[in-house]
Amino acid sequence: MGKKLLNGSLLYFIGMALVIVGLLLPIVKVMGQTPNAFKFLDMKNFGTTTVAILLILIGAALGILFSLINKLSAKSNKLIALAITLAGGVILLLLFTGILSDSSLGGKIMRAAGKSFIKHAYIGFYVILVGWLAAIYGWLTGN
Predict the structure, then answer these.
(1) Measured between alpha carbons, how far is residue 130 from residues 14, 45, 80, 90, 123 in Å?
(2) Tens-digit pLDDT string for the chain (143 aa)
(3) What is the C-alpha separation between 52 and 40, in angstroms, rounded?
């Protein structure tokens, strides 16, 4: 039998790294602009969008940290980091669909993208999705 190309822990690490890379890339294309996730951060009017982006960023950073430090690499720690980043994603999804609202700049961009978000999705969105899928699969198959 052939050797496994990627073990679960490495796949989890790669997935979490892809989430951070996806945040740096343009997420949506609205009104001719392609902002990355950090353009959605509005520390002056700390809104729901800012909380969601920070949850995604902090969860992914914790996942990478837990993967690199052996004492912290317990499967439960990785699950907590994955849950934090996915919670941020769910909040953003609720913002995109209009179930939640936000008066900050990020919320206004979300409303502009609206329910037809998938038409406006850009490369960063897809990289984040691939990262989440890789991290979930890595967590499920990891030790």
Answers:
(1) 10, 30, 19, 15, 11
(2) 445 556 878 899 999 999 999 999 988 777 677 778 888 777 777 778 888 899 999 999 999 999 888 777 788 899 999 999 999 999 888 877 666 666 555 555 555 555 556 666 789 889 999 999 999 999 998 76
(3) 10
- 36, 39, 43, 48 alpha-carbon torsion, rounded to 10°: -60
**Which amino acid is present at 14?**
I
d(Cα 102, Cα 22) in Å, to the nearest integer? 22
pTM: 0.83
How far apart CA 86 and CA 83 sit, in angstroms, is 5
Q: Which amino acid is at 93?
A: L
- Classify burial at 140, counting beta carbons within 10 Å of its beta carbon; exposed 0-12, middle 13-18, buried 19 or more: exposed
Give the residue carrying structure tokens 């392609």: 34
Find out whether 134 and 15 touch, Cβ atoms under 8 Å: yes
Dihedral (CA of 61, 64, 70, 73) sign:
positive
